[in-house]
Amino acid sequence: MTEVSQRPEAVPDNVVGGTPPPRPRRRLGPVPAIVVVVVLAAAPLFLAPFATTTLTRLLVFGLLAVSLDLLVGITGLPSLGHAAYFGAGAYAAGWVSIHLTPAIPVPLLVGAAVGGLAAAATGWVAVRSAGVYFLMLTLAIGEVLAQLAQSWDGVTGGANGLSGIPAARLGSEPLLGVGYLYWYVLAVGVVAFALVWLLARSPFGATLRGIRDNESRMRAIGYSTTLYKYGAFIAAGTIAGVAGSLLAAQQRLVTPGDLGFTTAALVLLAVVVGGAGSLWGPVVGAAVVVLVRDALGPGLGGHGELLLGIVFVLVVYLLPRGAAGLTSLRPFRRRRS
Amino acid sequence: MSALTCRGLSRSFGALRAVDDVDLTVAPGARHALIGPNGAGKSTLFRLLTGRMRADAGTVGLGEHDVTSLSEVRRCRLGMSQTLQHSSLFASLTAAETVALAARRHDGTRIVPWPRRQPRVGTRSAELLGLVGLADRAGDTVPSLSHGERKQLEVALALACSPSVLLLDEPAAGMSPAESARLLAVLADLPSEVTVLFVEHDLDLVFDLADRVTVLHLGRVLLSGTPDEVRASDAVREAYLGTSRREELFTS
Amino acid sequence: MTGWVAANLISVLNGLAIGALLFVLAVGLSLVFGMMDVLNLAHGALFVVGAYLAAALAGGGPSWGGFLGALGVAAVIGLLAGGLLSAMTEPLRTRSHLDQALLTLGVALIVAEVLQIVFGDDPLAVPAPPGLDGSTSVFGAAYPTYRLVLIGVGAVLAVGVHVLVERTTLGALIRATVADREMVAAIGVDNRRVKIAVFAAGSLLATVAGVLGGPVYGASVGLDSTVLILALVVVVIGGLGSVKGALVGALVIGQIESLGRALLPDLASFVLFGALALVLIVRPRGLFGSRSGAAA
User: Fold this and answer.
1) Do the Cβ atoms of B126 and A19 come within 8 Å?
2) A33: exposed, middle or buried (C-beta count within 10 Å: 0-12, 13-18, 19+)?
3) Which end of chain C is more exposed for a tag (fewer CB within 10 A), N or C?
4) CATH number at residue C257
5) Number of other CB atoms surrounding residue C182 within 10 Å
6) What are the C-alpha distances in Å from C172 to residues A83, A150, A197, C156, C194?
7) Residue B115 and residue A202: Cβ atoms within 8 Å?
8) Following DSSP, what letter does each residue of C147-193 receive, concatenated?
9) C291 in Cβ contact with C285 (< 8 Å)
10) Cβ atoms within 10 Å, residue C125
11) Which of A141, A148, A272 minimises the CB distance to C102?
C-alpha cells in the first residue's frame, strides 16, 4: 500500500510495468497493510461503542474517498459530484432493505449496481471533458441527482430522507451490535479497497495514469482515452455505491444531504488532504475530515465545516501533495515534478 | 501500393493556407524526408497526416485504408505511429513504464483491470530502450532524463506501437551530435517493412538518411525527388535562401 | 401561440428576471476563468454575502435607504473580496488550475459557515424597496413590480458590461488577455493588475447580484451552491470567457428554470442538465467559446 504506480512487492517481474524494478525500494511487502487491518479489526474490542460508531462512519467515508481517488489521483479527473453515486447507492440499498430484504449481500450488490449505473448514465458527458471543465460538469450532475433525491418523494422520502431502514441481516441474524456492524463495514471496506488497489496496478490502471499525465499522447499511441475514462468513472461510481450501501446499513437513514454538494466537497477535501493518487492517503484524509466534523464539530457549535475550510486552504498552500506527500522522504516514494 | 498517401490535402487558418492542395506518396520501406523553410507548413501537414488535426479538404491513405475520417487513435491502431516535435511524455512514469504503455497496447492482449504478468511486454520494452540507447535509464522517471534522452524515449515509444509507418517530427531537434548520430543509426537499422516519414531541419541528417525528399514551400509541394535532385534544384535553393548560393545551404 | 404566451407570460417574465440576475452573476465568473483559468468556486458564496447584507440592512421593512445602502456596502465588499481572492490565488499561479479551484472551494466553505454562524440557520426574507413591492398589470396579469425592475436593471448592466468589454480600451485588454495571455504579457502589460481588476469587478457583480436577488430568493443556507451551479451551467453553455455567451446562456437557463418548473415541475432539473449535455455534445466549448480550453 505504498505507491500507486508501483507493482506489488510480492510479484517479482513483468507485471504492470512489465519491466525491472525502477529502483531499490524498501521491501515492506504486505506487512503494513496486514498490521493496519488487524489493528482495525481488533479496535471494537477496546473502544467504547460511541468511538466504534465514529470509526464505522470513518471507514464508510474512507471508502468513498478511495473511490474518488481512483478518479482524482489515478485518472486525473477531479470530481465535485462524486457524492451523487454514494447517495444513489445508499438510497438503493436502503430502499431494497425496506421493501425487499436487508439480507447481506443483497443491499450491497444493489447499491453497487445502482451507483455504477448512475455513473454510467451521467458519466458519458462528463468524461468528454477534462480538468476544470470536468469539475464543473460533475458539480452540475451531482446537484441534479441531489435535487432528484429531494423531489422524488415516493421513493426517497423527499427532504426528510429515507428512514426506517432495517438493520442489515447476515443469514437470519440482524447486525444490531455496533461491533458487528463495524466488522461488516470493515470487511466490505477492505475487500473494496483491495479491488481498487488491484485495479490501480493493472494494465488498465497503468493506462489511467498515462491519461492523467498526458491524455493527448495516450491517444497518439492508440488508446481511446474517453473509453478508459468512462470505465474509471463507472468503476469509481460502483465503489461509491458500495460505500453508500454501507452508509445505509450504518445510519439506517439516508438524506438528500448525503449526496449533496457539501458531501462531495468534503470527500474531495479528504482526497486532497490525504494526498491524491496514493489510495491510502485519502483514507487518512477521510479520517481527518470525519474527526474534525463529528468529534471536534460539537465543541465548535456544530461548525466543524468552518475548521475544515481552514484546513483545506492551509493544505492547498502548505502540502500540495497532501498527507501522502509527507512520506516522500522515504525511499519508496517517487517525487513527481 | 504505397505506404502513405495524401491527395489534395488542405488546411487554412483564417486567410493563411498553411497546407494547400498537397499530394504526397510515400513508398513502402522509404526513408522519406519532408523539408522546407520555416512556415512552409511541415508541422501542419504532419498533424493532418497523423489525424491530430482535421483537414479542410483532401484524403489521407494508409496502406490500403482510407483513413481521412479516422481519428488519431484509429490511425495508430492501423499502424501509423509518431513522435512529436516537442517531447510530450508522462511526467510520473519511468522510461520503462512509458514504453510498456505502448508495447502493451500493441501486443494484441486486452487491457484488463486486474494485475497480470506480461513478460512479452517487459521484454519488448527493454529491447526498445536498448535499441535507442536508454537501457541503463529504464528505471528513471521522465523528468530526470535529459532533453536528448527524452527525444530518444519518444522514438522508443513510437516504435513500441509496432508501426508500419513511422512519422517523426524533428526527431533530432535539440540533440547533441552524439545523440543525433545514435538516432541516425537507429533509424537506418529499422527493418525495411517500416516506412519512415520525417520532418527535419538538420539537412545533414536528411541527406544521410533519406532516399526521397519532399520540399514544402508556402504550404505547397515545391519538389519531390531524390536527395541529389533536391540538392541540384534552383527552385529549392531560392525557396530557402532567396537567391543566395547553393553551397552555403548544403555545406554548413 | 398568443394563447400559450398569455398563459405562460408570468413564467416567461420570471425567466427573464432570473436570466438578468444570472447574467450579472455569471459574467464575472466567466471572465475570471476565461482570463486567468481560475475557476472561482467562491462565486456563489459572494452572491450569498450580498443576499445576507440585503437581509441585514433592508430586512426590517421596505426602505430605499436600507436597500441602496446594502447595494453600496455589497459593492465595496465585493471589490475587496475580489482583490483578496486574486491575491490568494497568486502564490498558486505556477501550480495546477485545480489547486486554485480547490482554494476557492475552501474559501466558499469558510464563508458559508461564517454566514451561518452570524445569521443562523433560518432563511431570511428581503423585502423589495417601497414602491416596487407591489404588483403591476402586464397584459392583464398581475406581476411583481420589483421583478420587472430587475429585468430592466439586468438589461442595463448587461449593456454596460458589453460596452465596457467590447468598446473600451480596458475591454480590449481584457479580451486580448482572454485570447492570448502570454502575448499581452509580452507587450508589457502587467497580467496581475488585469487579473486583480477583473477579479474585483466580477466579485462586485456577484455581491451586487446577491442584493438584487434578495427580494426574489431571500437569503438562506445552501443558496450559495444552488447559485454557483446555475452560474456554472450558464458559463459552460455560453462558453468560458465570452460576455455574449454569458448573456445568451443566462437567458436560456433563466427560461429553462422558470418555464421548466412551471410546465414540467418534476423534470426541471433534468431539462437543465439535458440542455447542458446537449450543448456540450454539439459544441464542447460552449456556444460562444473559442479557445481550446478543455486541456485546462
Assistant:
1) yes
2) middle
3) N
4) 1.10.3470
5) 8
6) 41, 45, 51, 20, 11
7) yes
8) HHHHHHHHHHHHHHHHHHHHHSHHHHHHHHHHH-HHHHHHTT--HHH
9) yes
10) 13
11) A272
For residue B110, give the H/E element and its range: none
> Which has the closest alpha carbon to C239: C174, C175, C292, C286?
C286
CA separation for the pair A52, A54 (Å, rounded)? 5
CA distance C290 to C271: 25
- Reduced to 3 states, what is the DSSP secondary structure of residue B196? strand
Q: How far apart are CA A212 and CA A74, in angstroms?
A: 7
C-beta atoms of C284 and A137 within 8 A: no
Contact by Cβ (8 Å): C66, C53: no
The answer as to whether C110 is a domain residue is yes
For every residue of chain A, which 3-state class applies, written as one string?
CCCCCCCCCCCCCCCCCCCCCCCCCCCCCCHHHHHHHHHHHHHHHHCCHHHHHHHHHHHHHHHHHHHHHHHHHHHCCCCCCCHHHHHHHHHHHHHHHHHCCCECCHHHHHHHHHHHHHHHHHHHHHCCCCHHHHHHHHHHHHHHHHHHHHHCHHHHCHHHCECCCCCCEECCEECCCHHHHHHHHHHHHHHHHHHHHHHHHCHHHHHHHHHHHHHHHHHHCCCCHHHHHHHHHHHHHHHHHHHHHHHHHHHCCECHHHHCHHHHHHHHHHHHHHCCCCCHHHHHHHHHHHHHHHHHHHHHCCCHHHHHHHHHHHHHHHCCCCHHHHHHHCCCCCCCC
pLDDT at B240 over 90: no
On whether any CB of chain A is under 8 Å from the CB of B108, the answer is: no
Q: Which residues from chain B sit within 8 angstroms of residue A217, using beta carbons?
A: 84, 88-90
Q: How many residues does chain A have?
A: 337
Inter-chain touch A313–C103, beta carbons under 8 Å: yes
- The tens place of each residue's pLDDT in chain A, 337 residues long, gives 333 343 333 333 333 333 444 444 455 667 888 888 889 888 888 888 888 998 999 999 999 999 999 999 999 998 989 999 999 999 999 999 999 888 889 999 999 999 999 999 988 888 987 777 788 888 888 888 888 888 887 888 888 889 888 888 888 888 888 889 999 999 999 999 999 999 999 999 999 999 999 998 999 999 999 999 999 999 999 999 999 999 999 999 999 888 888 899 889 989 988 888 889 999 999 998 888 887 777 776 667 778 888 888 888 888 777 666 665 444 333 444 3
Beta carbons of C243 and C165 less than 8 angstroms apart: yes
DSSP symbol at C130: T
Across the interface, whether the CB atoms of B77 and A235 are under 8 A apart is answered no
- Output the CA torsion sign for C186, C187, C188, C190: negative
Q: List, in order of start, the domains of chain B with CATH numbers.
A: 1-79+163-252 (3.40.50.300), 87-162 (no CATH)
Q: From CA C114, how far away is CA C117, in angstroms rounded?
A: 5
Q: Which are the contacts of B232, defined by CB distance < 8 A and separation ≥ 6?
A: none
- Interface subset of A 212-231, CB within 8 angstroms of B: 212-214, 216-225, 228, 231
State yes or no: pLDDT of B154 exceeds 70: yes
Whether the CB of B184 is below 8 Å from some CB of chain A: the reply is no
Full residue range of the structural domain in which residue C126 is found: 2-282
Gap from C126 CA to chain A (nearest CA, Å): 24
Residues 6+ apart with CB under 8 A from B177: none
Local structure of B3: helix, strand or coil:
coil
Task: Please report where in the chains the cell 495508430 appears, as a residue.
Answer: B76
Q: Please check whether residue C29 lies inside any domain of the structure.
A: yes
- Contact assessment for residue B131 and residue B156, using Cβ atoms and an 8 Å cutoff: yes
The residues facing A173 across adjacent strands are A170
Which H or E element spans position C280? helix C268-282
ipTM attached to this prediction: 0.87
DSSP B60: E
For residue C245, being part of any structural domain is answered with yes
